[in-house]
Amino acid sequence: MLQQVMTEPGKIIFREIPVPEIGDGQVLVKIMDIGVCGSDIHVYHGKHPFTKYPVTQGHEVSGEIVKCGANVEGLTVGQKVTIEPQVYCGKCYPCRHGKYNLCEELKVMGFQTTGTASEFFAVDAKKVTPIPKSMSFEEGAMLEPLAVAVHAVRQMGDVTGMNIAVLGAGPIGNLVAQAAKGLGAAKVMITDVSDYRLEKAKECGVDVCVNTKEKNFGEALVEAFGPDKADVIYDCAGNNLTMGQAIQYARKGSVIVLVAVFADMATVDLAVANDHELDIKSTMMYRHEDYVGAIELVEAGKVQLKPLISKIFPFAQYLDAYKYIDANRETTMKVIIAVQEK
Q1: With pLDDT > 90 as the criterion, what percentage of the chain qualifies?
Q2: How far apart are CA 339 and CA 115, in angstroms?
């Protein structure tokens, strides 16, 4: 079978390797589709701080089970599945208390361990989640970023009836906004400086879409929600400007959730955060229940994934997909790699 390998920044080769054998408690998955994430692009440019080369990428994935090992229960050959890419120790404090997404030795497939970018992939059955027959493989490959969004929204607990603002309308911001609405938020506003991304948000049913190049964020909050503003602001852009806007204009005593990853050390006005008694939370990846929630939202028609697919590339054109993203950053939401011909 063919396996993708990034040998160094900007260079991808394909090598022929045997189809992996599976052990007890494992399944063999025929990989169908892989989503390209912003973190993959960081690896492509040699700017991911926790990834060494060579590395086989792929962590947003869908596939079909073709073989089950001994002692595998609840999974069958032919099932559509997605794979949860976290590799955790199971022994540290977070793992022992159910928060394995915060494992002290956390590794992620495609970065610190071998990813799914191959024609077949052997994996522990406990990392496999079935997806509905009605869900396309392309949508299945987008459940990972949706699980990120579900986990982020749930940092606030039950958001039913809340007014929510989302800063940044890229793929994660879009999905956070959709997930918030799908999980019961009364009204959701999203902001960006890209009209294209805001149009995508509007297409996906987000209530209010604001270009902050044209309208002040503080004014937009009051216009959307009235003088009480938002109950929570999710920062899905992750820069000093957006976090600065959140701190400056948040309702006193409300909550800011940092979803995006800051590339550099943040410089924000914590004196204002202190004075306004703002609760600043953060969020890290997901757990199994977030995948389940993501699937439920898609099945119920409360989250739209297909509008976010910008382009699909065949497996052999992996490098072309990265080049396309680089050349079309402003108009690209999600690129999919089709590992198998359909």
Answers
A1: 98
A2: 13
